[in-house]
Write a structure and sequence with these properties.
145 residues; alpha+beta; eight-stranded antiparallel β-sheet; ASHA1/2-like_C; START-like_dom_sf
Amino acid sequence: MKKEKFTVVIGAPKEKVWNVLWNDDTYRKWTTVFSEGSKAVTDWKEGSKIHFLDANNDGMNSLIDKCIENEVMNFKHIGVVKNGVEQPLDEATKNWSGSSENYALSETDGITTLSVEMDIIPEYLDYFNKTFPLALDLVKKLAEE
């Protein structure tokens, strides 16, 4: 697995950026880059389970490893979800199970820097290097509205 980092500077306070990231309505907007109809099913609390799902209720299940409101949200990805049901680990899933996706926000004078570090398996490296900057551009646009 390779650790990649994506960063965007946003002309908005970190509280607004945080809300754009994790509010259901805006979350669905910026994650359409990855999958049309995407959503997250969770209570957004540290230690809680989260399902990242597409319009067909397929996706992955993860844990919220760390959550410090307006500053840090870390996910530990566990496995696959099909039709809303967590699937047993198979060989393909074992290649990325335990990987992390970490969001960090820092603010100076009303300008927020959002950094995302994530573990990516080689076959998805090109995909995420292309789509993640697009997703962060949408976060920026929504937060600066």
